[in-house]
Amino acid sequence: MHQQRLWFFCNLLLLLLALLHFSNASDDVVCTGICPIVHPQQHFCNADLAFKLMVTGRAHMDSDFRKVDQHYSTAIRYRGVIIDTFKGPSSAREGMEVDFYTPRWECEIPIPEMDVEYLIAGKVRNGVLNVTECDGLAVPWSHLTSEQRAGIEGKYNEQCKSCEISSARVAKRMWGELVLAGQESGFWSTDLCFFNPIQSQKYGGKDCETLYSVCTPSLEDNGGTCAWEQTASYTDCFQKREDLWFFMEKSEPAFNCESDCHSQPSKKLRWQCTKQKKKLKRRGQCS
Question: Is the pTM value of this prediction over 0.85?
Fold first, then answer.
């Protein structure tokens, strides 16, 4: 039993030393540990390279980039074949093989299935493409919405020099008149390209900004501000998320344009329904 414990602690020490050596001696694959919430558009703008790849293989590597057993690895090397290049040199053409690395343990982006098309984006350090939760993307292509694909294929890149997306660092952000209007939660805003995915998840809604919109220069402001593009999918998602918040926080039904106010079981609910529909009509959301 004593020998088994000694063997376990010796191996643990070797692993910790390897990780320490890896983080100190090599800047090729790095990770900061705790990653901020970043919108895919901002990830794309921050990335050095972005590809659509068919991921074909993986190998466990040590700090000197030699293949090792999984238990002694400090990074994983993935290999893929380029299907399309969204950001990178003109020499990166369809059919070429590309290697990219993700560190093990903290900030690893695992890719469980091979021979699957992925969106891959990341930073290049010392000639190595890094893909981590902090500064990269690794998403199955089939999981992307049509709005996200349009972003990756050009719309994100068009706005990189014009707009920067901020994410929530606090539980709630207040947006002046938007909150005072009555139903609006204040957790989300179409203005200034702010998004709050944590609260979206808390209330059971979708992260509408990530899934269905692109941050673009505001059409209503020539002062250089940006706002979320009002696609049909985004507008619908935003309202449904607000309805969920309204129902959970107010403990009352969340009425929409299609609600039949006359069929509500009480005078109070009929009045609330009518009031809500009038508000939606003033905002141009009801015909």
Answer: no
